[in-house]
Amino acid sequence: MWNSDRQQQQQNGVITSTNAGTQNTNNGNGSRSSSQNPPKQLGMTSAISLAGPRPEDVQKTEELRKALEPYKVFETEEELNHRMEILAKLNTLVKQWVKDVSIAKNMPEAAASKLGGKIYTFGSYRLGVHHKGADIDALCVAPRNIERSDYFTSFFELMKKQPEVTECRAVEEAFVPVIKMNFDGIEIDLLFARLSLKEIPDDFDLRDDNLLKNLDPRSVRSLNGCRVTDEILSLVPNIENFRLALRSIKLWAKKHGIYSNSLGYFGGVTWAMLVARTCQLYPNATAATLVHKFFLVFSRWKWPHPVLLKHPDNVNLRFPVWDPRVNASDRYHLMPIITPAYPQQNSTFNVSESTKKVILMEFNRGMTTTDEIMLGRASWDRLFEAPSFFYRYRHFIVLLVNSQTADDHLEWCGLVESKIRLLIGNLERNQHISLAHVNPKCFEHKKGNSNNNNNNNNNNSSCSQNSSGNEEDKTGGSSQQTTTSTVTSSPFCSMWFIGLEFERTENLNVDLTESIQNFTEHVIQHGVNIKMLKEGMSIEARHVKRKQLSQYLDADFLKKERKSMESHNNFNNQIMANRKRLSTEMQKDGGSNGSSNNVKRSRVSESNEENSNASSDAGGATTPTTPTSTQQTPPTFSNASSKQATPVDDHSDNSNSGGGNSSSANGNGTPNSNSATASTQPATEVACS
After folding, report:
1. pTM for the model
2. Which of 139, 169, 268, 438 is least crowded, fewest Cβ atoms below 10 Å from its Cβ?
């Protein structure tokens, strides 16, 4: 097994761990000294490549590090020390609290002083990849004489009395009970676990599976975060390379809108496990190479083959584990990524068909971008540029969440966000919807944002126009304006947007009323059941066309979205031109004369054999077909009550999409083979309220 303690390597150094425990280093030019014994494998399979870093790999890694700096993903030494001081204070408070509670339960003071209690961290802070201002996920571990009720009463009151603590609130009925607080400027989510032990020493290791004996499920779930994080760190060959690569991938995922476990994308622990698996497959690679190989491996992964960092532990403590051989429901998981600590769980059970399509699309986009970066034709900034969401689709569902007070709005938005994936499922079950793409960003509606737009709509109700000057049908314009003449009258309003793509079906009328109504009724009923729903809390779902987004979003933001779309389309066109030029040169030069080009291209993907190995780790060498978002004939919506179709001018939408670029590429920046005939296809009719 690779030893994670060997993390301080020279930039050109290589580890080749063998059965005899030998260590070999390269000579700086990429060559390695040979070893008689085969290297030990780290993970489920052997490494794809043990090649060490080349000088250009080291240079690319330095460029990557510099590219990350403007995004504030690194904390200063002072900020790190501040976090450590906070955790030290918290740890002292826990020990004193355990002692005081024990004495109150008639335990002698001498014995109570030995009980201990400890704060453990997990998540991004424990992994060493937290960014400026990030919260800290922590766990309070107490001995067996401390009850959970003590934690949510006496400890909760103790924290509220601390001068450094603000916004302290307890969420005792959550799936994983937690106390949330702001401790001296740092947000902390503090879980609780009561172990079946008399004392908790300071050097206690939570990775021992026997600790889970006789524990309640909530304590097991609370312990799982720390146990998984510690396992991940122990399963990567070089922690520093892992951390820099993970910082890069997390930033990329957030910029590309696929970082949210609750909405059906991947959460922080999932991205950590994927990067850790990449490190196992390329144990001697630098961070820049790992980022590139990350996209190579997972753009070709044969889902739903699971991603595992190690063989599952043979432990039977009667806790449910992910096992499709036993659990029928596990067989339907789309992109299973399994946690390495017992009880093993699938960290991506929220993934839906739509979010899977979006994730795979971004994997392929990342693969194309990093290919260009490694060839020197693009910088790392290109990888972290956010793609346009609002110019990718022509039709949207906007969820408006309203409340009367700030505290009510915080709770209400949290509940609605946790349920949005149910709406995505409802929309996916509609046979005419090919994709329901939810934007994980929550937008706050600012008062007065839509006043000017609404006034303009009212003045032009007889003949409204879009930016291209094409007139819209009077009936369709007026019906939509009556719906959105006032976005909201509530003092607090948050919005989520869902982009819709429809199957190409002629003469079709789709009514989404039932899907939306079922979702809103479910959310409201759940709010009633948990006694959260208060006066003024409401949720509303509306259909919005792209040209009407200005009623909800800032005009400057939409301009940036349009520029982003144009930038991505230009970049994609440049890639296609480079590939076409290279293909032409190779054909002209022939086999021998084109060897220099072949060498340069092989630098990106190493070899066909290695590319096959990337997917063979997933059980086969066949590259799966990845769905992409295609430019489609725009469906038209009508008011559900009137069921009168509203025709949409294809040319007006194309102009609104960014001029000439939209005729040659869709919103994803990929070539659109149907753009030439899109305007001649019959428009789809869709009814939605």
Report:
1. 0.78
2. 169
